[in-house]
Amino acid sequence: MNIPLEEYIPYRILALLVLAVFYGIYLVKQRRQKRRGIQTMQIGRGKNTQTHAVETLMGIATVGIIPAQLLSIGFGWSHLPDNARFTGFCVGLLGDLIFFISVICMKDSWRAGIPDKDKTELVTDGIYAFSRNPAFLGFDLQYIGVLLMYCNLLTGMFTVFAIVMLHLQILQEEHYLAAAFGTEYLDYRHQVLRYLGRRKGEK
Which of 40, 67, 157, 185 could cross-link 30 (Cys pair, CB 3.0–4.6 Å)? Predict the structure, then answer.
């Protein structure tokens, strides 16, 4: 007698756990920075037209995907087999872990969006020695993980939209960092890859 794996693995609970941990990390970090007088949310503040547009669309994408994910979980809209869904849970949990490590390593220099007037430091150690954008990598893995757990057209569209907008935001931030930190950032960019890894021969 074959009993569906769904009866043993409560995917709704696991998917909600991935989301709760991820956004819990975000909100706790934001609250702690607020207590220190730091404005975490910098999206669209005092920017040129192109940067403002990218950050605004990124904000819409990253907020809009949440109800899409929750609707998919609530109604059980999933079209993938159980092994793919469990893989999705593992990928989502990995995204949570990478995101957590990234905000810890970034310390008080962490911002959502390009800083308007805040003076921040260029962080190149810890997880940033292996990825220039580990927080964005964490976002992407969380989105892909939930998509694998609850794969449907709605979540798929929002996932692609969010990942594309996060990538465009990375490109905007690279211009900002090059202007703000000059050679220090350019050397770092040469050594460490955008998402994961170091260039061959670099230590």
Answer: 40
Domains of the chain: 9-28+43-191 (1.20.120.1630)
Q: 169's torsion region: left (phi>0), alpha (psi -120 to 50) or beta?
A: alpha
Q: What amino acid occupies position 142?
A: Q
Q: Are 149 and 92 in contact (CB under 8 A)?
A: yes
Q: How far is CA 155 from the centre of its chain?
A: 16
**Partners of 41 in the beta sheet?**
112
**CA–CA dist 154, 175 (Å, integer):** 33
Using one digit for the tens of pLDDT, what is the confidence trace for 155-177? 999 999 999 999 999 999 999 89
**CB-count burial class (<10 Å; 0-12, 13-18, 19+) for 115:** middle
What CA–CA distance (Å, rounded) separates 197 from 193? 5
145: how many CB neighbours lie within 10 A of its CB? 26
From CA 47, how far away is CA 40, in angstroms rounded?
16
- Taking CA atoms, 73 is separated from 12, 70, 148, in Å, by 6, 5, 11
Q: List, for residues 75-113, the tens digit of each pLDDT value.
A: 999 999 988 999 999 999 999 999 999 999 988 777 777
Structure tokens at 131: 């990825």
